[in-house]
Q: What sequence folds into this?
């Protein structure tokens, strides 16, 4: 059952938009910039003969709307349409851009979702608050747990509905460091889509399934030297997130889940940026299906159906070359390797799953440097998957 909660996480990230710009399913990862934010100058300042293809961010509270209809298709939940609306703005001259927004979507499997959320950066980037709420009613195919299950491609039809609420507050300290706490609540019902016309009561009981509540605190630490959170050209971004659902917070299970990721950005001349990312996830043995680690959603491994490959641990490495053709248009080529396993000791050099693709970028909010990205990606044994979203993948 881990796949769908992971798919729900992907939908929530789009609906709440905080996770779209951040990192982890159901736990809003911090998109924390460094405490001391330098002025973002043109990469060609002092060289008048060259063309500035990425003009600097204006240091004023200039808000911009981005509204995006997103046609999408997934082997898990079918074809559908999502609509997202986000407003990017600066709370003050020294803070990185903030965002608030809402979204919703409907798929041919009769899956639908709706949500709202955002990230507010203020007090000269010393504070940031991230939060959101979402509801999803999903009909999907569950592939099972482990890389063997993903390779087999055999799925069970499930249905799941649930409500999620999360909030997190981070405080800057030292040079470019952030730390904070949060809370996440998720309440869902999971059943099997099974037709038993001769046994209607049994069919109803199977479809209604079981209710699972996960509720508990979270902690986060980040180190961030990026020049701009919405479209970085230089710097590093290292994050650690952990959640601790517990009976004390009315959770049905007590367990832990942690993720760590490191992004690095190198500017090459005026037109090129190389971006790299390595990440790892680990969940304790008592973790329910929706808090397992997975490839194919969030920031890790475009090219895989969300939840097809999932287990208690995951590792992934990715690289991306970003090219700016003009002030508004750009492109990218990317690739990566990932793996899921029962534990980190079971990671094997022969089990890596490759992925890669190409994409187009259009700068929809030039004052805050926010791109709309359109990517097509391939994974091992997967058909080409199309991605249309707000903001960079990582």
A:
């Amino acid at each position: 059952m881990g796949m769908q909660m992971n798919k729900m996480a992907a939908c929530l990230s789009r609906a709440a938009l905080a996770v779209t710009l951040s990192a982890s399913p159901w736990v809003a990862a911090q998109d924390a910039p460094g405490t001391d934010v330098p002025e973002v100058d043109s990469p060609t300042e002092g060289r008048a003969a060259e063309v500035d293809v990425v003009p600097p961010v204006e240091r004023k509270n200039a808000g911009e709307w981005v509204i995006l209809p997103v046609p999408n298709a997934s082997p898990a939940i079918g074809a559908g349409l999502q609509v997202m609306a986000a407003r990017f703005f600066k709370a003050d001259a020294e803070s990185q851009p903030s965002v608030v927004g809402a979204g919703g979507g409907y798929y041919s499997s009769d899956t639908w979702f709706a949500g709202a959320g955002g990230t507010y950066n203020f007090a000269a980037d010393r504070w940031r608050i991230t939060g959101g709420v979402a509801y999803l009613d999903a009909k999907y195919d569950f592939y099972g747990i482990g890389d063997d299950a993903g390779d087999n491609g055999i799925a069970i039809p499930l249905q799941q509905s649930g409500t999620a609420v999360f909030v997190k507050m981070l405080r800057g300290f030292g040079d470019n460091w952030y730390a904070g706490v949060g809370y996440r609540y998720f309440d869902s019902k999971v059943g099997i889509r099974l037709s038993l016309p001769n046994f209607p009561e049994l069919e109803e009981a199977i479809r209604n399934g079981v209710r699972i509540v996960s509720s508990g605190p979270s902690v986060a630490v980040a180190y961030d030297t990026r020049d701009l959170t919405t479209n970085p050209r230089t710097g590093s971004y290292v994050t650690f997130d952990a959640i601790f659902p517990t009976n004390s917070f009315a959770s049905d299970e007590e367990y832990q889940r942690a993720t760590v990721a490191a992004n690095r950005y190198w500017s090459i001349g005026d037109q090129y940026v190389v971006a790299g990312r390595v990440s790892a996830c680990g969940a304790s043995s008592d973790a329910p299906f929706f808090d397992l680690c997975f490839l194919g959603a969030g920031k890790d491994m475009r090219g895989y159906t969300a939840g097809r490959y999932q287990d208690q641990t995951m590792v992934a490495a990715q690289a991306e070359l970003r090219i700016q053709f003009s002030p508004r248009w750009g492109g990218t080529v990317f690739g990566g390797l990932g793996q899921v396993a029962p534990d980190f000791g079971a990671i094997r050099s022969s089990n890596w799953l490759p992925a890669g693709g190409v994409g187009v970028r259009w700068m929809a909010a030039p004052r805050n440097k926010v791109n709309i990205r359109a990517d097509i990606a391939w994974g091992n044994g997967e058909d080409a998957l199309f991605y249309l979203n707000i903001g960079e993948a990582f």
Summary: The chain is about 10% helix and 50% strand. The radius of gyration is 21 Å.
